[in-house]
Specification:
Strand content: under 5%
Helix content: 55-70%
Order of helices and strands: HHHHHHHHHHHHHHHH
Length: 416
């Protein structure tokens, strides 16, 4: 399990090998589940996420013949039963993830510096690592950064604190090298939420000042960015025009949406329309490209037919992909999974400081998932499975032969 958590963020063959290791660990944990009960898997987030992927696999039965379902991502569910038995000692999961992200970041830095050549015919592009899609790399980088910050805060020695800080710095470098603005924003939101949690929990008398600081700080940053940069003002003005044009009428003026944000608006609007054409069953797994092609034929010029790249298998939003392929049930299950995971991870971080970065990491991944379909690739879907597994309540270790008073073996208690 530890080896799988290290290899999963690295990319290349690493994420493929990690799935095998997760499978071996899950199989080896069967005796553990037989002693402690398989009910530990019956957590809301785990059940909802399992039902979502069950629906994805079932929807292949009514997919069109030319469909290319992303069924391989379902194997990432093996990470959940593999990780749960170790969650009473969070360091066994958090440190390997932070190390794997740091290795990925080091490879990215080597590629950017020209020390490592591109594998095969792929160029390093903006994500010079072993995985080609910058958004998926950025999801891991954000998680590694937030997890490392949590580990640095609870480390019991200067050496472990320095190690966690170093891993966090490497993760930050990897995030910068992705050149993904959405991930930068999501990472900033996650770091802000983590800081807010620490300030709010620090001391009762400091809560008023912390609340004022955390309210004014993002407003000041946003105001400075808007009034101090013509580029930011232009992007905001363009985004407002694109939103108004796409959502008010399906017929969009040609040339209005050349930006990546404008394309995403078209895909989101198309996903909404396609979902209601088959609200119960959806169009089937792997049917996104064919469904968009059929919709394009019915739309007038300017609505989609004259937009290059409209027909795609990746609508750059996990919820949009689910709405097209599995209809209302799939989109609902995915949305409920996101809510349950975020709530569970946030609550767990309230009692276990080492896990305090997991909740903000979940929220950051949800933000990135609104503009990138992170569940279509096993590389980033593995992280989603890990976050779902780690979102269990703190009392999940009860009855596992673990003394709650000894949970400080891998972290410093808040009162120390």
């Amino acid at each position: 399990m530890v080896s799988a958590c290290v290899l999963a963020p690295v990319g290349g063959l690493g994420d493929s090998i990690s799935l095998w290791f997760f499978g071996i660990a899950a199989g080896a944990a069967i005796p553990w589940y037989s002693r402690h009960g398989f009910g530990v898997l019956a957590r809301p987030a785990v059940v909802l996420y399992g039902l979502f992927w069950l629906l994805v696999l079932a929807s292949t039965a009514w997919s069109p013949p030319a469909a290319t379902p992303a069924g391989s991502a379902a194997w990432t569910l093996l990470a959940i039963p593999a990780v749960i038995p170790a969650l009473h000692r969070p360091g066994l999961v958090l440190w390997p993830i932070a190390i794997g992200v740091a290795v990925q970041a080091a490879i990215q830095a080597g590629g950017a510096a020209g020390l490592i050549e591109s594998p095969g015919e792929r160029a390093w592009r903006s994500s010079p690592g072993l995985y080609w899609y910058p958004a998926s790399v950025a999801v891991w980088s954000v998680t590694g950064l937030l997890v490392s910050l949590g580990l640095a805060r609870v480390s019991g020695s200067a050496r472990s604190t320095l190690a966690a800080a170093g891993l966090g710095m490497l993760a930050a470098v990897g995030l910068v090298l992705t050149l993904n603005r959405a991930a930068w924003l999501a990472g900033g939101v996650g770091a802000f939420l983590l800081l807010a949690r620490w300030l709010w929990q620090s001391r009762q008398s400091h809560r008023v000042g912390a609340a004022a600081l955390l309210t004014l700080l993002p407003l000041a940053i946003a105001a400075a960015a808007f009034f101090g940069s013509k580029t930011v003002r232009y992007r905001v003005h363009t985004a407002v025009e694109e939103v108004a044009a796409v959502w008010q009428s399906p017929a969009v003026a040609p040339g209005l949406h050349p930006s990546s944000f404008g394309m995403r608006l078209l895909w989101w609007r198309a996903g909404w329309d396609l979902m209601w054409t088959r609200p119960i069953s959806g169009h089937g797994a792997g049917s996104i490209a064919e469904s968009l092609a059929r919709l394009e034929v019915r739309r007038p010029s300017g609505g989609a037919a004259d937009v290059r790249g409209f027909i795609t298998s990746n609508p750059h939003c996990s919820l949009t992909a689910a709405a097209i392929e599995q209809g209302v049930p799939g989109a609902s299950l995915l949305l409920l999974t996101a809510i349950a995971t975020a709530i569970g991870a946030w609550r767990r971080g309230a009692s276990e400081i080492a896990m305090s970065g997991v909740g903000p990491a979940v929220i950051a991944m949800l933000l990135i998932g609104t503009v990138h379909a992170v569940l279509l690739e096993p590389y980033s879907a593995t992280l989603a499975a890990l976050l779902v597994a780690m979102s269990g309540a703190p009392h999940a270790a009860k009855g596992l032969g673990v003394d709650p008073a000894r949970r400080c073996d891998t972290m410093r208690c808040e009162g120390d």
